[in-house]
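We treat protein structure as text, and this decision shapes the records that our systems exchange. Because each token names a local backbone shape, the row as a whole describes the fold. For reference, a complete record is included directly beneath this paragraph.
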Amino acid sequence: MAPSDVKVLGAPPSPFVNRVQIALNLKHVDYEFLEETFGYKSELLLKSNPIHKKVPVLIHGGKPVCESLVIVQYIDEVWIDGPGILPSDPYDRATARFWAAYVDDKWWPTLRGLTNAEGEEAKAAALEQVMEGIILLEDAFAKCGKGKDFFGGDTIGYLDIALGGFLGWLRAAEKMTDLKILDATKTPGLFGWAHRFGSNAALKDVIPKTEKIVELAKMLTARAKAQ
């Protein structure tokens, strides 16, 4: 399929956009990346996602698909020749979807809270919430991965993409707070997973550099304070 038939509307620092890029790379699908300017919504974006008005949007054959995890599932179902992303077993598939929802609804907001925390007491409370989630995800990795390299087993799967899209922001949070979130002693499973996931060829030139994310995070924090 020609690259022009597959387009991604997004902004590189977005972990949600990164999920879509990783999934397409895993499936070896060529695509055209249409970068949205931060703070500005293009006419194409508003037309393609009139409900939420946000990235990412996958445009395939002129038809838009919205919401990162929905897009990842769509990619897995359309490009069946590539490696499978969602588990084939119904129970494993349901479990992966459950934990992906947990990452978005529960854990990601706590990580954002950590970077925005002011004062030692607030930072300590925010870190406790983040680590509670990390411990739960460490356990989920052991159960879902079944002793293998990824949540998806031998290869990167749906939950790997769901959590891994935030890996750059996690590294940025560690740098901004001078705290260690992934630790070889406390969370050995996730510590090793993060290295393997980050080294995969599907992530090449996808996850932004830590310094760039730190810069953006500081700007967003300053903007929120000014409002």
